[in-house]
Amino acid sequence: MDSRSTFDSPSGFNRRQFLGASLGAVSALALGGFVRPAQAASPIVLPALPYADSALAPVISANTLGFHYGKHHKAYVDNLNKLVAGSELADLSLEQIIAKVMGKADKTAIFNNAAQAWNHTFYWYSLRPNGGGEPPAALKARIEASFGSVDALKKELAQAALTQFGSGWAWLVADGKALKVVKTGNADMPQAQGYTPLLTLDVWEHAYYLDYQNRRGDYVNAVLDKLINWEFALKNLG
Ligand code: FE2
Q: In the chain, where does DSSP find H-type helix?
């Protein structure tokens, strides 16, 4: 199966859903429609991984992926469903929930679990077996216009990942015509700052500790060289 057919597999996360235009009130947040199609109803569903647990080994082991997806990601989805059960948020999509609670001090727990549910699905698609290498030409041109070279972008992404204090995420984003690297802490997402996410790297310790212990830089560089899904970034550019 090639990468395109993997990406377009019936996992609830295909390109049509991701680029879905009918997001209504949440479109301004550029959250995308990929985690749950509009017709889905409560509860929020844990989307299938787009590859097998072992598909990213040896860079990310099946053990790490199994715990990360099956325990951590699942826990965010399960916690979210418990938190919204019986409330006015219960029948909303994941993106709608995020849009409703973002920035509200009394809804922090709901935001954290909803954003982590969204961020993790985006992360799975930011990686692919036999990834890395040269970006597609159209993306490469945009990268070179903003960063000078693909290597310069990779260095900036690695630096953002390494310097994110504690848990969080490093992102390649679009800011209008320009591409940028940003980092967010804990569950935060770049849509809150008006950016369109293109790729992300999870730098919570649970993403790498079983395989790399404290060597976050080794994990990040290996992912950038061997797993990063440039095609996904290009699709997200629209
Ligand atoms: Fe994670």
A: 3-7, 15-18, 62-67, 74-84, 94-101, 108-126, 137-147, 150-163, 209-212, 216-226, 230-237
> Whole-model pTM?
0.85
Give the residue extent of every domain in the chain.
15-51+60-125, 137-237
CATH class of the domain at 137-237:
alpha beta
Distance from residue 204's CA to the centre of ligand 1 (Å): 6
Instruction: Determine the distance separating the centroid of ligand 1 and the alpha carbon of 60, expressed in angstroms.
Output: 12
3-state secondary structure of 185: strand
Q: What is the whole-number distance in angstroms between the Cα of residue 70 and the centre of ligand 1?
A: 11
Asked if residue 116 lies in contact with residue 210, where contact means CB atoms within 8 angstroms, the answer is no
Work out the pLDDT band at 2, boundaries 50, 70, 90: very low
Token duo for residue 58: 């040896």
What's the gap in Å between 148 CA and the centre of ligand 1? 30
Average pLDDT for 34-40: 41
3-state secondary structure 201-227: EECCHHHCHHHHCCCHHHHHHHHHHHC
pLDDT in tens, 123-133: 999 999 999 99
How far does the centroid of ligand 1 lie from the alpha carbon of residue 160, in Å?
A: 16
CB-CB contact of 112 with 84 (8 Å) = no
Strand ranges across the sheet with 196-202: 178-185, 168-175, 196-202
Please name the fold of domain 15-51+60-125.
Helix Hairpins (1.10.287)
Ligand 1 center to 116 CA (angstroms): 8
Contact yes or no for 227/128 (Cβ under 8 A): yes
Q: Is the dihedral of CA 93, 96, 101, 102 positive or negative?
A: positive
